[in-house]
């Protein structure tokens, strides 16, 4: 089969996907190592049977709901091409709000110590490394498999810029930090969203801390008071309906200037506070 025929077949098999043709193009481009423009410039190009079989295999997996990011092992975040595997959460656009919140707090020439807690693929840490090159950035991750993915990304995106630590949240860190960031799990174990869409394929411990959706946030917030400099900031992502609870947690711990930022859909998404 040629490029045009394979794309037609892929689109037919993904007929129930709103972006079926686009997804077929992405998957065929992945198999061939080319971009979408090449596909349209070479519609009659015949393919090796093994390439065709590989493409149809990926289409089948996508039809069953497997995320495109895992099939291509790539997802862009903050304009950075990140390697992603089923060992890490797929970076989402709303998490860029956490990066924006951090950058609004960090002066351009700052040389602060900053830590990304539960780094996953390293998305947040790498965005900060690119935008604030003088800062000393640390990233912690409990999962050895996820940390391996982050280290792979580091070798490509920011060689030698991130200090990685294997361990739970703040436990592997020493000393004080000016800024602590996290996109922790914040979905309750019984939330039906865990059985929908991409969440079905993502690592469960990156999505839910258990029955108490705020357990990880409470732990991070309470431990952060021992690691932050006075005047330092803690900022974290949370669910759209958890803003009030997040602010209450920080207020009860004595944080000041506690506020919540809304994402592009005008939903409360990132809460921050300053340690007095």
Structure keywords:
alpha/beta; Rossmann fold; 2 domains; 7-stranded mixed beta sheet; two-stranded antiparallel sheet; 10 helices; about 20% strand
Write structural notes for this entry:
By secondary structure, the chain is of the alpha/beta class. It folds into two domains: 3-64, Ubiquitin-associated (UBA) domain (Helicase, Ruva Protein, domain 3); 88-275, Rossmann fold. It has helices at residues 3-13, 20-32, 36-41, 49-63, 68-72, 96-105, 123-131, 144-157, 215-224, 243-252, and strands at residues 75-77, 80-82, 113-117, 136-141, 162-166, 177-182, 228-237, 255-262, 268-275. α1 crosses α2 and α6 runs parallel beside α7. The model has no long low-confidence stretch (mean pLDDT 95).
The proportion of residues in beta strands is 15-25%
Helix/strand order:
HHHHHEEHEHEHEEHEHEE
**pLDDT under 50 segments (min length 5)?**
none
How many strands, which pairing sense, and closed or not: the largest β-sheet? Answer: 7 strands, mixed
Instruction: Give the number of domains.
Output: 2
Radius of gyration: 21 Å
The assigned CATH architecture of the largest domain is: 3-Layer(aba) Sandwich
> For this structure, what is the CATH class of the largest domain?
Alpha Beta
CATH homologous superfamily (4th level) name of the largest domain: Vaccinia Virus protein VP39
Instruction: Report the structural category.
Output: alpha/beta
The CATH topology annotation of the largest domain reads as Rossmann fold
How many strand elements? 9
Silhouette: elongated
**Mean pLDDT score, rounded?**
95
